[in-house]
Amino acid sequence: MDFAFSLFGKILKVGFQPDIITFNTLIKGLCVNGKVKEALHFHDHVISLGFHLDQVSYGTLINGLCKMGKTTEALQVLRKIDGKLVNTDVVMYSTIIDSLCKDKLVTEAYVLYSEMITKRISPDVVTFSALIYGFCIVGQLKEAFGLFHEMVLKNINPDVYTFNILVDAFCKEGNTKEAKNVIAMMMKEGVIPDVVTYGSLMDGYCLVNKVNKAKHVLSLISRMGLTPNANSYNIIINGFCKIKMVDEALNLFNEMCCRGIAPDKMHDRGQHANVITYNSFLHALCKNHQVDKAIAFVKKIKDHGIQPYINTYNILIDGLCKEVRLENAQVIFQDLLIKGYKVTVWTYNIMINGLCLEGLFDQAMILLEKMEENGCIPDVVTYETIIRALFKNDENDRAEKLLREMIARGLL
């Protein structure tokens, strides 16, 4: 942006007249780089110099404000320019409607939509999709379908994104029957369902514990000539884990890895998409007393070049402690400290609970002190874990001393 503005200065210096493309490019550049405030200042400067901007300029500013979560300011810009500087258009209205709907302000969004109609600004597929999404996320599916039918009556063809919103809404309510009806409707209209469509359907089946039906949809995706992604597998893996069918989940995970999906997607999406899946695996394995399999699983994901988060290790340490394998848990805990992991209060609480279960109160107290040395502040759970264990083992004096300390810290 600095070089861009240097060139802009050069244009002025040599006596050339910048045109609307110059201004719009600079405004877009500022907005894309999150410098919306600077874009607005630049707008004011341009206007003060006697230049005029167009609908693209103001559409870009409104979009930039909405992307920054400043919907109110975007609406103010709309009001400021309306009929004075330029004529407002469908892009400006749709952008603000979309932003309002994402904030669940669907009533305000619908008022703006009605204003569009009054001004004879024709809504498009983007406008309707934004409104339908807004009504769906606040649970007003009847109103969402009303808008869908209004859209069709206006001869505006819904696209795959519009249909996916409705499929997802029904699936989130566990209503897979209606979701399938929407999919049938979209196919009748010549709109081809995509991986997202089937992902929502799989989610819906898993929500009502029909995981085998979800798995059938996964196989259907491939037969339809689509390529399942990491999310497609994650949905079913999580579904199997929730109903404690861990072996089925592991088979799917292996299939996912064999197809080269897991590692690529992990890197592309910064690991966030799959961490829930991995943690679901570990929870399920540990709850089913299969801690050795859990350890092997963590090793396997590391072999794929994926570094687990601290919460993944927390689940594993907790599973080991509950299986009375404190020494193994301590080895992992010490390894985390050595490798510089940001160990959380939860990690310490798990270890302290493990030590207390073994009656190792002195070690638990030492770990309590080390928490603070390592910049981790003990919480209510930390103190309650040790106090409860001390009282249970008739160590009343030590328990009462800790209780007083807890009160002094304002934790009780």
Automatic annotation (TrEMBL):
Placement of PPR repeats on the sequence: 19-53, 54-84, 89-123, 124-158, 159-193, 194-228, 229-263, 274-308, 309-343, 344-378, 379-412
Keywords: Repeat
InterPro entries, A to Z: PPR_P_subfamily, PPR_rpt, TPR-like_helical_dom_sf
Pfam families: PPR_1, PPR_2
Repeat in keyword set: yes
Source species, domain of life: Eukaryota
Family membership: Belongs to the PPR family. P subfamily.
Name of the protein: Pentatricopeptide (PPR) repeat protein
Species of provenance: Medicago truncatula
High-level lineage: Eukaryota, Viridiplantae, Streptophyta, Embryophyta, Tracheophyta
